[in-house]
Records
---
Amino acid sequence: MKVKNYSLLVFFLLSISFQATAFQASNDSTKKYKVVLDAGHGGKDWGTRGAKLKEKDVVLPVTLKVGEYLKKFTDNIEVIYTRTKDVYSHPKVRAIQANEAEADLFVSIHANAMPKGNEGVYGTETFVMGTKNEGLNFEVAKRENSVILLEENYEEIYQGFDPNSPEVDIMFEIQQEAYQENSILLASNIELQFKTRAGRKSRGVKQSSLWVLWNTAMPSVLVEIGYLTNPKEEKELSSATTQDYIASAIFRAIRDYFEYLDQTQN
Ligand SMILES: [Zn+2]
């Protein structure tokens, strides 16, 4: 009887000590991460468009869903949206918002387009900041950066930002290069999730000098969820089910990214 009690006591003490260890471990991992979710464009800035669908309208529900999943299924990630409605906010404000919040990650969500005659092109792409603006990547940079031209005092606000200037190369080395490894890590997982779990055609991870990525002081990616100029993909992207698949893919990639940081940094 005594022995039995003793073993119960040992079990009890062990379980307390196990709980204390677990508590400590969970304390260590309760580090709050902040992610800024940026639904591209909005208001007067429509972004690109297909036959019917406007970029600003399709990226908003996808972005909001990513945030909902993060709030529902993780307890250590705080979500900050740059917009939750159809309102205009220029890229500088979005980047400043992320920097001021001292966010750990910036994820900008967009939809893509091709010039006429290339309607057959479809699939997803995730961009990280880079200065290799070759070919079609430069087309994306021109289009996604073009909103900055909507500003009347463009020169003053953007201080002559020119994606092709050598100055951008130098600023890039100072700013986003430090975060590039982590940006690529997240971007690769987003594309992998798109391909393996969301049934999308992944066109891969690419580099481009995108203004909003250039100005954020944290790992940052810009996701192009598909081509509105491809009729089949435009139709798919307008369905809530496809939007949901895409949002869950981005959610899983963000969740895994922070889990990876927890595992490697603790
Ligand atoms: Zn866009």
---
Amino acid sequence: MSENSNIFQPAFDAPSFDKLEPLNSSEHPPRILLLYGSLRERAFSRLTIEEAERILQDMGADTRVFNPEGLPLVNEADKDHPKVKELHDLVKWSEGQVWCSPERHGAMTGVMKTQIDWIPLSDGSVRPTQGKTLAVMQIEGGSQSFNTVNQLRILGRWMRMLTIPNQSSVARAYQEFDENDRMKNSSFYNRIVDVMEELIKFTILTRDRKDYLVSRYSERKTILQGGQIKQK
Ligand SMILES: Cc1cc2nc3c(=O)[nH]c(=O)nc-3n(C[C@H](O)[C@H](O)[C@H](O)COP(=O)(O)O)c2cc1C
């Protein structure tokens, strides 16, 4: 081993194929939490999330949808607030997530961001989102845009999630639902099926390996040297 403690030291657990073998092989249905970013009574982001939930259930997933109504702003209440606790419990339970925000002024809504801002990067020794899968979606009233999914991808990275490549953006969302609040058959609908299919595949593939997949050399090294890891 080098005298220089700054250079890479394989002793701090270099990657190897055998470590990618899952320690156990989970058989339960993939657990997917779905979040949306609107409090409107007939919110198309909620209807889109409900459509995604039906598709996930048809594919065999176990699903939960969080209703953001009543969630306080960050620091307006503490983490014992019932809505905050409900959100934290769902995040811990989940193995993968779907986030769907409306686009407002070219960006995600405050309702969407508030939910993510309540999720701690670490809670004691548990990192509630780290290594979990994520699918990002947006809906908008205007022509198709990707501003919001791009922002959600940045948030996914910040929460150390495995954000899948495919994504969905439903343009002129008010035209895409019928009088029973079901999504009409369209290329937008088919894209949501594609995204959910990819999410389930990535969740099953990674859920039993996630701790190893996102384990970081720099953090293991700091811990072994008796230091504290930075929240970045
Ligand atoms: C203040 C405001 C800003 C908006 N900004 C945009 C925008 O930048 N791009 C867009 O396509 N639609 C925009 N919309 C339309 C919303 O995306 C649309 O009404 C959407 O259905 C709202 O989401 P919800 O149905 O889930 O509540 C805006 C609407 C409001 C009220």
---
Amino acid sequence: MESLISSLQTMPLWIAIPALLLENAIVLLLAIGWGEWVAWRYRDRRVSAIAPPLQRNEVLTAVSSVVTCTIITVIGLFLWRWQIIRFRTDVGLWAWLDVLVLLLVMDLAMYFLHRLAHHPLFYSWLHRLHHDFDRPRPLTLFILNPLENLAFGSLWLVVISLYNASWMGMSIYLMLNVLFGTMGHLGVEPFPIWWGRVPVLRYIGGSSFHARHHQDLACNFGFYTLVWDKLFGTLRKDYFESIGTVPDWVSK
Ligand SMILES: [Zn+2]
Ligand SMILES: [Zn+2]
């Protein structure tokens, strides 16, 4: 790992940029591949109606998302080279604690950014594109206005500029971020129904959680947990009862 870190430090940009572009493209393909497999595996447990045939603009927006994510990664590389972003290389208990800290802090920060994106000042030109797809599929995770993508990415860069997390903690967090994001757009619920009755576990956001946000824009703004929605009163009232189903109030 030391050699990977030192090669990133000195790698010329003409190699670093295509390599990071490729990395982001691979992440997108893995997320869609995994998501489509889970959606097929749990096809009997739909939480939203089946997505319509794929449109050209969906694919193009997803490709633009890879470019935007790469821009954020390259900015992150520069901030690291300029020592504005620093990270630790330990792999013990503190590194695992970083995962928890990053998940909770980013969940809170993104909760507020997401609520702001729903404000009438921003919604129509910034966030509506994502909600044009009320019957999500794994690809929908990547259907974001480039400016919105940059805003979420910048939030991440600000957090890791202020908090010296471990390389391991950041890597695991980033993997979980894609995992949760994909899960929210599966259109099916892979978690068992009893999930919603187990203390602590029930506050982890499954597929039904974000599916409800696509069906009711006034609720469920969190990403990884229900904690902030619960705290700020935006959790959909019938969320726990409706896990793993398409509720009656959803027009199919
Ligand atoms: Zn939204
Ligand atoms: Zn969504």
